[in-house]
Amino acid sequence: MKKSGYVNITKDIHDSRTKIITITELDIEKLKEAIPIWLQIQEKIVNDIGKVSYGNFFETLKAIQESIEYTRVKDTENLKLPISLFLASLTDVTPMTTC
């Protein structure tokens, strides 16, 4: 992602072991393009499997995510953030959780 210009990676000025990863304007533009597509896919899934099944699935994913203990990793470029949390953190979009 760095080579493609989507993120900047810098060292923390207070702790050189820590990397700071920020998204670029290019990445923000790509996210703006992706969000409507993501919402369409999410809506199709809800329509196909129903709101109750989707709600149960989402709650299961949330429980799995909460059970994972995130530990400090040496190379923060390898740290993956679930797309739903990533998108929700950048926009007013929140995952559909109501049934």
What spatial order of strands do you see in the largest sheet?
1-2
Low-pLDDT windows of residues: 71-77
What does the overall shape look like?
flat
Average the pLDDT over all residues and give the rounded result.
75
Could you tell me the number of beta strands?
Answer: 2
Head-to-tail CA distance between termini? 36 Å
- Counting helices, strands and paired strands, the structural category is mainly alpha
Order of helices and strands: EEHHH
Largest sheet: 2 strands, antiparallel
Beta percentage is 5-15%
Tell me the Rg in angstroms. Answer: 16 Å
Number of helical elements: 3
Helix-residue proportion? 40-55%
Describe this entry's structure for a reader.
This protein has 99 residues and is mainly alpha-helical. It has a domain at 27-90. 51% of the residues lie in helices and 10% in strands. The protein has helices at 25-49, 51-67, 83-90; strands spanning 7-11, 19-23. The chain has a two-stranded antiparallel ribbon with strand order 1-2. β1 and β2 (19-23) form a beta hairpin. α1 (25-49) crosses α2 (51-67). 1% of the residues are buried.
